[in-house]
Known about the structure:
Helix 8 (about 170-180) links the parallel strand 7 (about 165-170) and strand 8 (about 185-190). The protein is an alpha/beta fold. It contains 13 helices and ten strands. The longest helix has 15 residues, at about 5-15. It is globular, with a radius of gyration of 17 Å.
Amino acid sequence: MGFLTDHVTELRLDLAAHPLDRAALSADAAAQADARDVAAAITSARDADGVALIAEVKRASPSAGSIAADADPVAQARAYAGAGAAVVSVLTEPTRFGGSLDDLRRVRASIDLPLLRKDFLIEPDQVLAARAAGADTVLLIAASLDDHMLASMLAGSRDLGMEPLVESHTDEDLDRVLATDARVVGVNARDLESLDVDVPAALGRIRRIPPDRIAVFESGIRTRDDVARAVDAGASAILVGETLMRARDPSAAARALLGREERTA
C-alpha cells in the first residue's frame, strides 16, 4: 500500500523473530530517574516564545534520503538545547532513518531536556525499551495501531510516567486520536504511505484539535512564516527535523524558527 504499511509489516516480522527482553527492559526502566513532563515543557515554552520547538535528531529519511549521515547526535542535541528547544526528538529507527537507541542514550547523558523517542512503535515492549533508554515520551502513530493497541500503548506509556505524542496524518486518524484522552496530539503534514506533504490539509486538521489538548504540527516547517501559519491554526508546538539537520548552524536555525533572533536584533 505504501511506506508505512510496508515498514510496519517488516517490523512485525522482525519483532516476532527477535522478541525484546521484557524482564531486562523492566529492570532498566525502573532504574531510570522519573520521566520529565513533556506536556509541561511544551506549555511553558509556548507561553514564553509563542510556540514550543521539538527539535529532531535524524540522519536520513525515506523521503529525503541521506540528510546528515555523519551527524553527532550529542552535538546536535546540545545545539538545540542552547537555542531554546523545549524537547529533543531522537530518531531511533536504524534501517531508513540511520538512528539507534544508543543515540538516545548518548543524548540522555548529555542534556537535561525532555527526550522523545521517535520511531515506529507497534507493541508495548518497544515503549518499555524507550523508557529503559532514558526517553521521557514516545511517538504513537495512530495509523500503525488499531484502536485497542492505541489505547493499550497510551495507557502503558502513562504507567511508565510518559505522556506520549499521538500522531495523525489523515482526517480518519485524527478522529481516532481525538476519541482517546491523549493530551499531546500531533498532525503530520506528511502522508506516511505516499510520503507526500500537504501543509494546507494539515493546518485544517490542527484547527480541529480542541484547545484543551496540546497540538503539535509536524513536517513542512522551513521558515519563520511556516511557524506563524502553524501557530495561527492553533499549534502549540512544531516538530522540526530536516530543516535543522541541514542547517550549517543548527542553533541559529532553531533560534530563527522561534523568532529569538528578531527579539535580540
